[in-house]
Structure formats: C-alpha cells, structure tokens
Request: fold
Amino acid sequence: MTLREAIKTRKTSNGHFEPRPVSIEHQRMLIEAAERAPSHFNSQPWRFVLIDDPLVRSKVATIGGRTMTQLIEGGTFFTRYRKYFRFSEEEMNERRDGIFIDQMPLALRPFIKQVFSDNVMNVLSKLGVARLLGEDNRKLIEGSPLLLAVLLTKEEYKPGELSGYYCTLSAGMAIEHIWLMTGDLGMGIQFISTPMEIPEAWQELKRVLEVPDDLELMAVYRLGYLPAEKQRPRIDWRSDHRKKLSQIAFRNTCATPEADAPSTL
Ligand SMILES: Cc1cc2nc3c(=O)[nH]c(=O)nc-3n(C[C@H](O)[C@H](O)[C@H](O)COP(=O)(O)O)c2cc1C
Reply:
C-alpha cells in the first residue's frame, strides 16, 4: 500500500471486527508507528495501554455502553451535537462537513428533522432507543479484540501552557500514524468517546486502567481486523464527505481562497 492509498482509504470503522486476537507483532507495529510521530524537542510525551484482556475490555465496554445510553437519554448528545447532522443531500453538498443522515427507516424520512428534536428524542428514549444504542455500543467495544488507551505524561502535558498544546498536537500525530498503520494491517479503528463526555465515567475508566497520577488519559480506541462483510451500524457516525479546496485553503493571505481543482488522491 502506498502512502497515498493509505491516506485515501483511511476511515473510521464503526462496525464489528473479527473476534480473532490482534497479533502481538501487529500490536507492536502500531506502537512503533506511533512513536515515529514528531514531538516537541523529541519529548515523546505519549504513553499507550494495549488492552487485550477480556475482563478489562468488558469493564471498558460497560462504561462505553452506559455512557452512550446516558448521553442519549438525557438529551445531551443531541443538543451538543445536533449542529453536525445534515438532513438533506443539498445541505451536505453545500457544507460538505458533518454527518449525513441517510440511513433512517423510509417511514421516518419525512420527519427526519423532528427525529432530532428534544421532544421526539424524549419519546424515542422512552421507547428504549437510548438503551438499544447503548447496548450496540457496549457489544461493539466488548467484541473488539484490542482496545488502546492514549495517555500523556504530565511532566510535559500542562494544560493552558504551550507545552500542553504541543503535547496535544504530538498525541494527535501519533494517533494518526496508528490509524494509517491499521489500514496497512487490514484492521479498523474507532474512537470511544462517550465516557469522556461524562466526567465521573472518565474517572471510573482511569481507575479500571489504573492510570497513575503522573499520566493523563487522553483517548481510548477500539481496534480489530476488518471482516470481509461489513454491516452499517444503526447510526453511522462517520462521513466520506470533504470540503472543497476553496472552503479550507487560501493563497498567500486569508483574503484569497484557493481555486477548486479535481482531487489528486
Ligand atoms: C477528535 C475526534 C473525535 C471523534 N469522535 C468520534 C466518536 O466519538 N465516535 C466515532 O465513531 N468517531 C469519532 N470520530 C471520527 C469522526 O467521526 C470521523 O473522522 C469523521 O466522520 C470522518 O470520517 P472518517 O474518519 O471515516 O474519514 C472522531 C474523530 C476525531 C478526530
């Protein structure tokens, strides 16, 4: 796979993975890819926890499932993130960002916007939709043969200071290296973000992972080999849409948008 292909085909995997374990060799390749990333003064502030023990995975999965249910049930998820959902192809084609809701059951489509209103969410929650999505999430995490926690050493990571910003940039680059490497290994990867949205759940997760005081837990991912047959999840939290050059790039100063051109990838 060329680097260009790796970049072009990189995506979020939000379906099930094969149950077979990720080989130790591949796990080490992921970490080695991460540590090839740049960091300020070569400080390498990142740390990683490779989680393949079913018991620990199941504890993380329980927290992941429960927080998904809590966020949807309490309405937090949709009030916080409604702005990222696109409801028509026209809207998607114009903005070219966010998540296009194109997988609603046919009967619900005329009411698509209302489906995301607080009232309807309350009704859906009562119908058990929140628990259903939480349970989907729990199963996806528990069934992932490998979870990966990304941490930063507090010796370097000082939020609010420049070093905090540099650390966050470095961690992002390390994660992207892992992400690209998963593509080369026939694997998929997905961010597990719901525990992060509920501070008590994040603390609980830190206790499960026995995170010491001198490390900060930054992110958790689920990984595994991709099955031959992929099933789209109930809600597809990802998108291939990308903005045009003229929407994101400028020439020389911010006053001149870059001209659009056909994709080079
Ligand atoms: C900071 C950050 C947070 C994200 N949070 C989630 C998440 O909670 N769940 C998820 O499935 N994907 C998450 N994603 C993945 C994005 O939804 C995804 O990158 C985007 O829709 C584009 O899809 P693609 O990665 O397949 O190209 C996150 C990505 C980033 C960089």
User: Anything to note?
Assistant: Residues 162-184 form the longest helix (23 residues). Residues 25 and 55 are 22 Å apart (CA to CA).
